[in-house]
Amino acid sequence: MINCEKAERLIPLFVEADLEATEQQAVSQHLDICLTCRNLAAEFQSSQTWIQAMGVPAFDERLLADLRNAVQQNVAKPKLEIASVFLPLWNWKFALAGAVALLLLVSGILMQARVGSEHQPQVAAGIPSNVATQQLITDAKIAEKKQASSVFVQHRATSKTIPAHQRKRDLGEAPASETPVAGVDPGIVATAETTASATAVNASLADFLTLAPSTPPEMAAKSETKVAEPEMLRMEIQTADPNIRIIWLTPKEPPARANGVAEPK
Fold first, then answer.
1. Residue 37 in contact with residue 14, Cβ under 8 Å?
2. What contacts 28, CB < 8 A, 6 or more positions away?
3. What backbone phi and psi angles, to 5 degrees, belong to 42?
4. How far apart are the first and last CA of the chain?
5. Could you tell me which residues are beta bridge partners of residue 33?
6. Which of 20-34, 47-61, 75-89, 101-115 shows the lowest per-residue confidence on average (mean pLDDT)?
7. What is the residue range of 22's domain?
8. How far is CA 46 from CA 16, 23, 32, 37, in A?
9. H helices of the chain, where?
10. Please, which pLDDT band fits residue 103 given cuts at 50, 70 and 90?
């Protein structure tokens, strides 16, 4: 026995008697007990009878031959697919060569990037930056200033041992006995003397800065013992310029002559 679902698929073949004997008998037994399937088989039988009653139209043999040839050509014609065009190019040899080339390309790019990243810090360390260069220049200037200040301090320590009359002569100071020239503005004279004195002081300071490091303390002590430093008198003269003053240093007592007779005051 078959069910209705299977009987519905076999009814068209049952009406035309295209089933095997076993299936034909099974469908006939089902139609005996199922009214719905029996009505469906009756509809198929009436439609088939109506088609057969119309008769077969007459066709020329030539027309049938042309129709038959056209159908066979369409069936035998191969379909052109995109895969069939590129399939010969993608055989296993080409695929293997392409895979190896792609692998080598990717490996080369990664190796180049790795080598560049390893060498970049070394290059950066070998080339100092602008900040490092500025720091080096600043350190050099500070060291130079410290060295100049130490030389100046040593010059001051050495200059204390130089006699007063020698220091006055080196600085280009005029003796205290000189009197101002009549009719000349004291400010002009003071300015000229101040300019000359400043020039002499700069020259003397340059000489001291050059010679002071090479002068041993023993020679300075010997010169101090040979010539006794007299007590000095300090005189300050204010010029017309408030920023310029003339400082005179003169001994309180005139030095004795070579024969032991003091100079008249």
1. no
2. 14
3. -70, -40
4. 168
5. none
6. 75-89
7. 1-51
8. 12, 22, 18, 14
9. 4-16, 21-33, 35-54, 61-76, 82-86, 92-126, 130-159, 164-171, 186-211, 217-226
10. very high
pTM above 0.85, yes or no: no
Cβ atoms of 254 and 263 within 8 Å: the answer is yes
In a domain, 126, yes or no: no
Residue 37: CB atoms within 10 A of its CB come to: 22
58 falls within a domain = no
Q: What is the Cα gyration radius of the chain?
A: 65
Q: What length does the chain have? A: 265
Residue 23 lies in a domain: yes
Rounded distance between C-alpha atoms, residue 83 and residue 90, angstroms:
10
Q: Which long-range contacts (CB under 8 A, 24 or more apart) does 209-214 make?
A: 209/151, 209/152, 209/155, 212/151, 212/154, 212/155, 212/158, 212/159, 213/151, 213/154
Cα 143 from Cα 85, distance rounded (Å): 82
Residue 123 burial by CB count (10 A; 0-12/13-18/19+): exposed, middle or buried? Answer: exposed
SS3 at position 59: coil
